[in-house]
Amino acid sequence: MASAALQIEERAVERTRVLLTGTLMTPEGAVQVRVRDISPAGAQIWTERPVRAGCDAVYKRGCLFAAARIVWSEDRHAGLSFYREVPLSEVVR
Questions:
Q1: What's the whole-number mean pLDDT along residues 30-34?
Q2: Which of 12, 48, 63, 89 is deepest in the core (most CB within 10 A)?
Q3: What's the whole-model pTM score?
Q4: Integer CA distances (angstroms), 64 to 15, 53, 76, in order
Q5: Which CATH number applies to 4-91: 1.10.10.10, 2.40.10.220, 3.30.420.40, 3.40.1550.20?
Q6: Where are the alpha helices (DSSP H) in 1-93?
Q7: How do the domains of the chain map onto residue ranges?
């Protein structure tokens, strides 16, 4: 399991700090999330319960659905890597 600090250093795209909510649909079920920072390529989230790293998920906010991979998870924080770039204008809408 990679640490959050290591993941921050490895990012190729700068992220925007936000405070958004949404739902993450995982193989274990849906979980409410708060997005802490986001870029077109991924996001750092806080979850109401821990999620498993290494699995696919779908982030939903309003009418936006973004397929993602949970690339790391520590306690109730996790990092998502989107399979396709998501325009920030779509996320904050």
A1: 97
A2: 48
A3: 0.80
A4: 19, 22, 23
A5: 2.40.10.220
A6: 4-10, 88-91
A7: 4-91
